[in-house]
Input
Amino acid sequence: MDGHGPLHSQLTRALKAAMLEGRMAAGERLPPTRLLARELEVSRNTVLAAYEQLQAEGFLRGKVGSGSYVAPGLQAQRAVEGERAVPPAGSRVLPPQSVHAGRLRRFHDHARIPGRTVPGTRYAFQYGVPMTNPALTSAWARELSRAARYTAPSYPPSQGLPALREAVAGYLGRRRGVQVAADDVLIVNGTQQAIALTARVLLDPGAAAAIEEPQYFAIREVLQIHGARLQPVPVDGEGLRVDMLPMPAPRLVCVTPSHQFPTGAVLSLPRRQALLDYVHAHDGWIFEDDYDGEFRYDARPLSALRSLDRRGRVVYVGSFSKAMFPALRLGYLVMPPGLREDFISAKWAEDFGSSSVEQAALARFIDDGGFERHLRRTSKALRERRAALLQGLARRLGERIEIADSNAGMHLVAWLRDATPAQGERLIATAARRGLGLHPIAPFYLQPPARQGLLMGYAGMPLAEIDAALQLFAECMDEAVPAR
Ligand SMILES: Cc1ncc(COP(=O)(O)O)c(C=O)c1O
Output
């Protein structure tokens, strides 16, 4: 008896262990309840309860009260129960139990997610964090509490609430040049679910998928875990090198045309056209990840690639992670017309549908203009931060870095001039030690890049702190990458 919980449960566990470890053999008679109760100095009811429990679970044969025997054939059960009986903490990791699990282990590691916050830093040029905005928090709290009161408690439609699909379709027409009906829109739990569903609908394991090099690691990993064969294609200042797409052509090409992730390049119009022609000629598909297309600072946002697609070959995906905040886990996928049912069924199979309350709140937030007001405010604040960051980098780092800037999004890339890989690593380590979070660009490449670079997110960096952070950055550069 181990002293944990009610006496009858302790006794049940102790007897089970004796049977599973072979100390009590199949067919062996258990002591009469009265006798065992006396020996253990517990009530007879305690022993009766334990025997009944063991009998209910199939460990004992016979009638409680007139003789109970260890059940035969415990061998198989022993393995199963034995696993459960061993405490999970510190237990040995089993080999992967499926091919899929094998790929999960090979391609994903929770402990090594690129760009993750460096703990204990004073300043962090963190990518992927939203801009904190008290006005959004209170507006969102109001919408949520209203939606919680009026949303039907039944299962949501798998495709998404009609009100949200209407709102998204309207928004895409107004802001992204994408003219679609609400019926073409599938509500998903972010880009992450969109790529997983797309892989399921379009790719057999082993099928080829082209990705940008460098690329967003989460999409890459989902494809790898799915069993896709990746074909990395370089990017330059005009985005994906469409002329370097492989032959034979892959089933799927994943791109970030509005703002290449992470380099920031915008896919030029001739390349957009060439890419559409390429997939059309080879019966392929495009996954357009329009993750931060709403933030452009020089002019109106560029229309999405999907707006040029006349043949229905683009799976267009947007997310509320940047436009609102990533904890929301909501996004949308514009389905190619001929594959609507497949995408909706794939979403159903995955989770029945996204949470109705959040969907209803978001639909109202978009309809009553709150969402686009929030976008305008956020764009203004991001533009200020970006300008301060660019000025500060020029002033404090000067020629030692080269900025890849595209007038869009929430991050930019600073390439380190003349830095060796070892110096790049030293810079990150020095910065972390001195309280500055810097993130290398290398983990976003499949092959190590020729140059050392930093991915600098500015949505989470208050305007007032940018200069102090850059001063620290310059000091770390002096220490880790001495000027020649
Ligand atoms: C390139 C890219 N796509 C998409 C996303 C958003 O993913 P999700 O919608 O799953 O939050 C991110 C977020 O950091 C991103 O960097």
User: Anything to note?
Assistant: The chain has 16 helices and 15 strands.
